[in-house]
Amino acid sequence: MSTDLLLDPVRLGRLEQIDLPPRIVRLRELHLRAVPEVCMERPRLLTRLARERSLLDRTRISVLEQARLYREVLESREPVVAHAAAWLEGTGEVSLRGEPLPLLAGSTTSRFKGVPLYPEFLALTLWPELEELPRRRSNPYRIRPAEVDELNHDIFPSWIRAHVAEVARARAGASLEDGLLGHVDLYLLSKLSCISHTIPDFGRVLRRGLLDLAEEARQRCRRARGADRRDLYSALEEALLGTVAWGHRLSAEARAMAEREPDAARRAGLRALAEAHQRAPAEPARTFREGLTAIWTCWNAVLLENANYGLSLGRLDQLLADLYRADLEAGRIDQEGALELVCDFWLKVGDHVPGVPGTGEAFFGATGSNQAVTLGGVDAEGRCAVNELSHLLLRATELMRLRDPNVNARYHPGVNPPAWLRRICRANLRTGATPAIHNDRAVVRAMTARGETLAQARDYGIVGCVEPTSAGRAYGHSAAILVNLVSVLDLALFRGTRRDGGQLLGVDTGDPGGFAGFGAFREALSAQIDWLAARTTALNDLLGAVHQDIHPTPILSSIFEGPMEQGLDLSRGGATINGSGVAVVGLADVVDSLSALQIHVYERRTVGFDALREALLRDFAGDAVLRAMLARSPRFGSDDPVARENATWLLGELDRAFGSRINYRGGRYRVGYWTMTTHVGWGSLAGALPSGRRAGAPFASGITPVSGAVPCLATSLGAMAGLPAEAITSGMAHNVKFTPSSRARSEADLAATVEAYFDDDDGRRNGGMEVQFTLLRPEAVADALAHPERHGDLLVRVSGYTAYLRDLSPAMRREILERTAFALASEGGEGFTLSLGEVQA
Amino acid sequence: MTLVDWLDRADRGLGAVLAGRQIPAARGAAAQACLGLLLRGLEAGACASESFHRRHVRGARARFLFRTEDRALASHLVLDGAELRAGVGDDGRPDDAEWDVVVVFRDASSISRLLLSGSPDVVLALVRRQLRVRGNLALLYKLGFMLFDLGGRLGLRPGGAP
Questions:
Q1: Whole-angstrom Cα distance, residue A406 to residue A795?
Q2: How do the domains of chain A map onto residue ranges?
Q3: I want to staple B31 with a disulfide (CB 3.0 to 4.6 A). Which of A455, A585, A811, B108 is the partner?
Q4: Domain B3-153, CATH 1.10.1240.10 — does that match?
Q5: Any CB–CB contact under 8 A between A57 and chain B?
Q6: ipTM of this model?
Q7: For A757-782, b where at least 16 C-beta lie within 10 A, e where not — what string?
Q8: Window 45-84 of B, Cβ < 8 Å to A
């Protein structure tokens, strides 16, 4: 693509002037007001068909059986072109007759905003609260009494012995029961709910169309040796033809609606829909609209198969740029038309929310599906990949201000124009929270350290929250394991037991009071990390084997680089790149605790270990002086060499312990630092720490320093930029909260801040890998808390993803409010901490 | 004030009294009574209400054992496809493997804390290690739904039918 047309400053300036068309304004309003409704279509169809095929009592389901099942679902689902009704907050059910028609047909559920249920995974956790769902305080879902009865009587009982957790438990017995349920304060394993967390290869969908891919599968099947391979190729063909059928059924429905439509404009709109869906994704996409239609239709199919936690859309500005350009040159589209299509697509992508039980809200509260979109950066050859479509997608993002998709921007210092960074910063100022910004140089370094080729690494997209993934070819399940690092520190402090005593859990590494020095304490912690890595990766591998046996993924495999070429389903290692991810929670709190132990217990000996341990168990009651002294220890995110050295050591240890292990698909484990809302959930359960943190307080989010620990932003960013990128192989979420002053001034300051943070000092440091902002004025937050009904779209950064402030739990709101806030335009970037009380006052 | 509120208050009061007087036996007896009351409540619901029976019992098969870690307290509940039966003790089946689900409470206090919390949350209790579970969790979710329904029918929760 030539940059002369697509990075024309005049055209980019014109883009800035485009506002939302009225039909999108209306659709957005409906979207924001819509209450999620439980969708029965998927569980109903899947249960009936699985029962008819006697799949529910099987311990192994072949990939071909699975593909045939899904194809029948795709051929049976109701093809929704435009929803007939929605349930709106404060209004109830309203008819959508006469409302604007979408530009893309299809829906991931049968509801306007649906909660899809996956009984083969964790839908059964909703069982106890089915009747309470519409009334629960946090993120209620609408469900009809007859649907409660159907789930209770028919659907859920069918899956009691057929869901992933139970199949795994029946296989592994007591060890898994202890492993899964006995240690939820230490780790969570997400294969119980999904694998997800990847990016399909939409490039091949757009270039070739699904019919061509199906033909390739057919040909390969003829040549294949071995029943398993033949099954796989037949399964890919079934999956591809099922997706084509879904597109054609949407097309037919749109055409039928057009026949009945009296209004000429709406009739024309429906015919255009029918035409686009007839062509895409069956054939190669010829236009920008067909490109979006193809991706969206495939997305419907992929979500039928895979629960959506972090399934991501990839580099849309790269995938669609040629189609956009061709349309522009042929006069088929203009910027306004393209922007409207993208806004429509954004709304479509957010047409569902994950079904989370009440308890899960504490750990994953207010999350959408975290469907990441990635913009900008460099191409596989290292050239600037920013184009007009990157800007257009960003413009759509800031105009729409939606939780989903989770938009991420890449910036390669020295390759991408500084104007691109300023544009990203402007979008942040306008939305208050998005997009997150990733440093290409540091990310590519981290990915190549784990084995990706330079071209594969440069073609990364973000998955879920912040995890870089080679787009369309890496099956990384970056959220496979979530680890509470603070609990691991506890094991080192308390000889391998929890602090409330009980049986040995980790390794008895001895009484830290008897250690000769800090080095011995580090060794103890290292041993506990090794224990945790061995345990969690073994459990993840066990669950992975269950996925292989009862949940192969022919649909995702059919549009991915690797399965077709290797004749292997994704669940069995068919992807070009395999891996599993570990998200570490509580890093800053543990580094701070290590530094406090080093200084005060082992070097200066200002407090004995036994006295410290007693103070921790008392939550520092009566130990204010000791607590204050500990809190003055070197802090993570400062330029103190003790803190820096402890951080570097700990990151290295975690990378060594997990990164040396090979998973059940033959890929390595990778470690990332993002927390969703687990830092609040786990923090609420944790006792006092040597850092001076009190019991129950939230941990720091992501890889962010503890709030208030490092008051100078420049110092903090400098320290964060020095972290070893090669040890952070599954992304990081670094939250920075600003209170903006004037927009123009703030934009320049923000861009300069990011530029300085990303700078690698001529190779002497890595440069910051990622940063994400929350840009809130205290008065805006106070008003949002007082009048949530007026601020339904107020976005905040949680850790990795954005959320609507009103949806967050009180504890999570408090954590965000109490993060260190930096005055963006103030001299020296001195920070201050905003307390909840001050905001509310 | 709902019955749940009342039970909450009663529990706090009872807990304070028992803790203050250090009468573990009495606390255990209270917990056993609470658990028994709950399971018997389900049994009564299934006997007395055709709709409750139809909704939760007919066709359902599951065996639940509830006990403390030291096995000093135990109660059970059995769904045999046609009837719901509850009782004290382990029903002559001391081996955990004979049960579909075994809920092991850390101690008697954990039982009353969970059962009288107003909105019992098994997962949170797991996180806090007040209990552990052996067996098929989905059956426990079903049991949770039954209890929720019973609470509604008895008017013990907001929105529930009195």
A1: 11
A2: 28-168, 169-189+485-551+584-711
A3: B108
A4: no
A5: no
A6: 0.91
A7: bbbbeeeebbbbbbbbbbbbeeebbe
A8: 55-56, 59-60
